[in-house]
Fold this protein.
Amino acid sequence: MKRILVTGGAGYIGSHTTLELLDAGYDVIVVDNLSRGHRKTVDPKRLREADLLDTEALTRIMKEEPVEAVIHFAAYIAVGESMKDPGLYFRNNVAGSISLMNAMQAAGVNKIVFSSTAAVYGMPAVIPIRETEPYAPINAYGETKVMIEKVLTWFDQCVGFRSVCLRYFNASGADPAARTGEDHEPETHLIPLLFQAVKTGKPATLFGRDYPTPDGTCIRDYIHVSDLARAHIGAVEWLLKGGESKRFNVGTGSGYSVKEVVEAVERVTGKPVPHTYGPRREGDPPLLVANSTALQNELNWTPRDSALERIVETAWRWYNR
Ligand code: UFG
């Protein structure tokens, strides 16, 4: 049985991917320091509590339990926080990732799937966005991901590391069987915040209604977390077969406005979403939609659960667990 090391496996996308790997017949060990993830989402016999910056601990783990490849999720993800405390982001996301790569090298592991983001593109000129668009991050979070994509390129060239960087658009939804789901503290993502508004009656704030979009609210490409998880399985299999390094967008190619998401939440929950409009949130591009034909063609991936209703319905089931 092939063993995969998942960093950040106690987090949102990491916990879904761990389940998907197990379902696909892989053995999995999870490295997490539980600073943002949840202990209860990981089978205790798989969890190795360690910090990414502890290169020696990571090396020891991979020497004691040899792995074929690493899927690296562990990172801070809040754009706003990254602008208030960039040092935290560069230390955890950049220094932490380099520490992990050093440990992989010491343990003789040279295949890695890396969680990247649409934030590497900033405000792209051409929509839908292709992987060939230039790096142009507009926040510190996006910059940390650009930096690691570049470090991975050098590790490939210099020491034969093979990597697949998956640039996620808007990860959303939850495991259809509600085994795991989204649980950020504090929550900043649209769909769970709309659920909170439904539950508490306290209005959600929609950021901006004067964008150059048909209804004036921002448009995003929402991708179901289980589809994202399956993209990671495809990426690992690609690397295990000896495939070269790649960078792929992971999205659906369809965009929905904030207002359309509100309406979908109202349909699924059967309740009105109390909301008000506030000013634009700094750093929000009006329109982000992926061209993900490269991933579809090269890794034979297709989104199965990413219809907006399906995303909202699975997230709502998890929210009410
Ligand atoms: N939004 C609101 N009100 C809220 C929260 C969000 O109107 O209370 C809006 C945002 O302005 C945005 C949309 O809902 O237009 C989606 O916002 P999210 O915060 O859910 O997601 P983002 O698009 O900001 O962020 C996602 C990922 C980031 C990544 C980014 C890339 O979560 O990690 O896409 O642009 F960096």
In short: The two ends are 33 Å apart (CA to CA). The longest strand covers residues 111-117. The chain has two domains: 3-172+222-250, 190-220+253-319.
